[in-house]
């Protein structure tokens, strides 16, 4: 493990990496929590697995999600270890995630009738360790039109696609603020955080400007036709 101080004087940062030739190396819940607790830590190379033991810190409730579902999950969990999947059958249990701040694994919302994800308002960190696994994947939710992560600080993945939205309500793609709000809350310059139907925030905004200009031109033309018709009637 080799912390490397950043050369940026105004905002000193530390790159944290754990390298090993062993494919069996794991990182404990306490170790990753220590790294996350310092906002100036940039988390780089990490092992591909979390160690199996769940932290028994009495002040913070940690829960394991492996081989579990939202239906069987306890309430009041602050840390979740495992890949969290929310499907249509889990919708009535999403309230159990309202207290969750850290997901040590990935978050997937797939094929639901949800309209928003306000049950994730407390979420601060999502750290997926497996290769080519996105931190957050939200897909095939046709009614999902309100998406915010007001307290999200880190979304970390060993993938170019860290946060993916695809095949949800078209409203997410039509409103550039949805994309920008997520990127801004994470304070990242990564142009691929997030993507919505394969497009980044810049492209979504460009498309919105084109649509607005076309709508203005259409309205101007309609006004011209109405005015011309009015003049014709007078004459």
Automatic annotation (TrEMBL):
Taxonomy, superkingdom: Eukaryota
Every Receptor L-domain domain range: 76-181
InterPro entries with a match to the protein in the record: Rcpt_L-dom, Rcpt_L-dom_sf, SPS2_domain
Pfam families (UniProt xref): Recep_L_domain (PF01030)
Gene3D superfamilies in alphabetical order: Receptor L-domain (3.80.20.20)
Name of the protein in question: Protein CBG06484
């Amino acid at each position: 493990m080799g912390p490397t101080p950043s050369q940026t004087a105004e905002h000193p940062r530390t790159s944290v990496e754990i390298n090993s030739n062993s494919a069996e190396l794991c990182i404990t819940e306490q170790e990753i929590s220590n790294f996350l607790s310092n906002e100036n830590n940039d988390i780089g190379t990490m092992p591909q697995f979390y160690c199996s033991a769940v932290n028994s810190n009495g002040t913070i409730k940690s829960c394991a999600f492996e081989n579990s579902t939202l239906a069987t999950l306890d309430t009041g969990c602050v840390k979740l270890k495992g890949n969290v999947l929310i499907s249509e059958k889990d919708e009535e249990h999403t309230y159990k995630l309202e207290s969750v701040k850290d997901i040590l694994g990935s978050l997937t919302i797939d094929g639901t009738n949800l309209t928003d994800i306000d049950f994730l308002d407390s979420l601060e960190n999502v750290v997926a360790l497996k290769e080519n696994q996105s931190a957050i994947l939200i897909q095939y939710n046709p009614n999902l039109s309100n998406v915010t992560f007001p307290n999200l600080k880190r979304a970390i993945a060993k993938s170019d696609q860290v946060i993916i939205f695809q095949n949800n309500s078209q409203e997410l793609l039509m409103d550039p603020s949805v994309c920008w709000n997520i990127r801004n809350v994470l304070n990242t310059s990564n142009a691929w955080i997030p993507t919505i139907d394969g497009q980044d925030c810049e492209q979504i905004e460009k498309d919105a400007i084109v649509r607005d200009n076309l709508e203005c031109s259409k309205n101007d033309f309609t006004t011209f036709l109405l005015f011309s018709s009015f003049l014709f009637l007078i004459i």
